[in-house]
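wait is this the right file?? whatever heres the structure
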């Protein structure tokens, strides 16, 4: 919901929605862009009406503030923060009506439903009224929490409750030699791979998040002794065991692993796990088209992160003192990377194809980064699963503009790992020939792999263009989506501007493709 608009836009003639940067937005009045909002928050104006005081808000009090000119919203339930969003109304890209849906109540779901990554805490910090008054809670047994970690921890009640609903409860253990400490996670799942676990070691804190089905299991510890920056991660697939091997700085015997940090040893639905960020350094930037560049970032040496195919991450930059976050889909360094040795080791670098919108908020800032500068990169998100490729015979990819990005790794993976695959066809929609990303790679790939074919469709071609023209349509799709046999197993992946994707899905259903045969990439 709280996605960020760009600079300034002409006054709208009506409340019609426009699509910009991937989602529908209400056109904002002149002077009501995010930059204008940031300027207002920096003006020193009292935006809460409380002259800088923070108060405890009861549920009864919250309910009273449910009008447009007096609208309070609580985020994150009973322990959450309460904001006076009235001054923000006109700046909200989702429109006033959307914001009013949470007036005088808990807006967490509304915020999460749309864009849970948006850092409202940073954007709305000047609107903070206070915290919800906490109801007296049942006395808690702190004995367990104070315990140091010396091996297996007794599981918390929260973990137990969730584990009953989710995957069988994971656990961890550790052991040591003179020079090494090995932390072992028992996931009790067979389909664990190297991209299921994300490890970050920063200063003394050690964090390992394991994705088990739709759940996140976290180990978060302040280590009792110093370790070296690098470590290794191994998976024993058939038993779902993960081993993280740390190198001790000094060869002493550890009495305990360390002290638990926030949410240590917890299993929560992935959607409820906060996003964790680490700083990555810009290594190179290369023009791919007139407005799209290939960015290469280096992960810190003490991070293990492999973004699963079809998933995206969030990039975070501080723009005029406000944290701004936008999603991007990592790609390979080249479309042909499976056919050649990578120039740089795969697991330490992360590549993005990013289109720069001159009037956009985030991408011009990204474009101004110098080699050596840093950007924050989050853990991955997304719901594509490579199991969707099982026994697949025909893979059809429908991409518009930068909607091509998820297709890059998909293409590489499918052509190299799926023996049943007979045909992969990409229909790539762009305005002009100059907008086609990696056209020469795509054409080269058609020669390298006979199963692959590409069709370019242009919406604003020059008169000499003799390829396909127009927008996504039932006629284009029915001609393109020919199965290799009547009963062949098909998957159609679609990604682009939201209305493109929505229309495409509608046409696909009209052409009798089932829900299971279609995967759409969205936020
Ligand atoms: P914005 O400020 O969002 O503006 C974009 C354009 O829309 C500008 O021209 C601006 O003038 C116009 N605009 C903005 N708001 C309004 C409004 N209210 N009314 C009228 N016009 C408006 N992009 C990539 O390039 N590569 C990727 O790999 C990629 N992956 C993505 C993955 C996901 C899951 C999603 C959801 C999106 C992805 N995107 C990707 C898009 C990306 O997240 C940003 O939306 C995009 O980079 C634009 O950001 P911006 O802040 O620069 O532009
Ligand atoms: P673009 O260049 O503006 O458009 C690409 C092609 O799509 C053009 O031919 C364009 O036609 C057509 N198109 C645009 N809107 C359409 C609509 N409503 N119906 C049918 N065709 C339409 O695209 P872009 O600027 O690169 O934007 C790519 C989009 O993909 C962004 O919105 C981005 O957020 C999204 N994206 C999403 C993900 C994800 O969810 N995982 C990943 C990457 C990118 P016209 O000439 O008529 O405009």
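ok assuming it is, sequence goes like this
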């Amino acid at each position: 919901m709280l996605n960020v608009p760009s600079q300034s836009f002409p006054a709208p003639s009506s409340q019609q929605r426009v699509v910009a940067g991937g989602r529908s937005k209400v056109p904002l009045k002149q002077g009501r862009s995010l930059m204008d909002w940031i300027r207002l928050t920096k003006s020193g104006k009292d935006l809460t009406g409380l002259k800088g005081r923070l108060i405890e808000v009861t549920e009864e009090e919250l309910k009273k503030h449910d009008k447009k000119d007096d609208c309070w919203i609580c985020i994150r339930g009973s322990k959450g923060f309460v904001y006076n969003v009235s001054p923000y109304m006109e700046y909200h890209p989702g429109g006033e009506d959307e914001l009013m849906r949470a007036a005088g109540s808990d807006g967490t779901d509304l915020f999460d439903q749309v864009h849970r990554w948006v850092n409202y805490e940073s954007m709305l910090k000047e609107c903070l009224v206070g915290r919800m008054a906490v109801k007296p809670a049942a006395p808690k047994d702190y004995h367990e929490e104070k315990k140091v970690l010396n091996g297996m921890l007794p599981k918390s009640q929260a973990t137990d409750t969730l584990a009953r609903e989710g995957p069988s409860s994971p656990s961890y253990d550790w052991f040591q030699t003179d020079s090494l400490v090995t932390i072992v996670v028992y996931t009790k799942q067979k389909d664990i791979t190297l991209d299921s676990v994300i490890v970050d070691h920063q200063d003394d804190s050690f964090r390992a998040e394991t994705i088990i089905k739709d759940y996140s299991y976290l180990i978060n510890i302040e280590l009792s002794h110093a370790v070296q920056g690098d470590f290794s991660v191994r998976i024993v697939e058939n038993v779902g065991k993960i081993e993280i091997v740390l190198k001790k700085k000094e060869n002493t015997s550890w009495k305990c692993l360390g002290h638990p940090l926030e949410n240590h040893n917890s299993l929560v639905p992935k959607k409820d796990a906060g996003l964790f960020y680490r700083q990555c350094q810009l290594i190179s930037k290369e023009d791919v088209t007139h407005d799209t560049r290939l960015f290469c970032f280096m992960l810190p040496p003490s991070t293990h992160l492999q973004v699963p195919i079809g998933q995206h991450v969030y990039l975070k930059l501080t723009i005029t003192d406000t944290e701004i976050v936008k999603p991007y889909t990592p790609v390979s360094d080249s479309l042909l990377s499976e056919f050649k040795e990578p120039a740089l080791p795969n697991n330490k670098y992360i590549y993005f194809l990013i289109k720069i919108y001159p009037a956009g908020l985030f991408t011009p800032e990204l474009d101004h980064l110098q080699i050596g500068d840093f950007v924050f990169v989050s853990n991955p998100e997304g719901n594509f699963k490579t199991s969707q490729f099982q026994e697949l015979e025909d893979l059809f990819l429908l991409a518009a503009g930068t909607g091509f990005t998820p297709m890059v790794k998909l293409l590489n993976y499918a052509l190299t790992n799926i023996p049943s695959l007979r045909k992969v066809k990409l229909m790539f929609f762009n305005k002009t020939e100059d907008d086609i990303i990696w056209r020469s790679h795509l054409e080269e790939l058609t020669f390298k792999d006979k199963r692959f074919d590409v069709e370019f469709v242009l919406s604003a071609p020059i008169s000499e263009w003799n390829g396909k023209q127009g927008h996504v349509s039932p006629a284009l799709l029915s001609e393109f989506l020919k199965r290799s046999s009547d009963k062949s197993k098909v998957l159609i992946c679609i990604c682009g501007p939201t209305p493109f994707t929505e229309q495409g899905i509608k046409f696909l259903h009209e052409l009798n493709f089932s829900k299971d045969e279609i995967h759409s990439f969205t936020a």
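The longest strand covers residues 277-287. so i think its the right one actually
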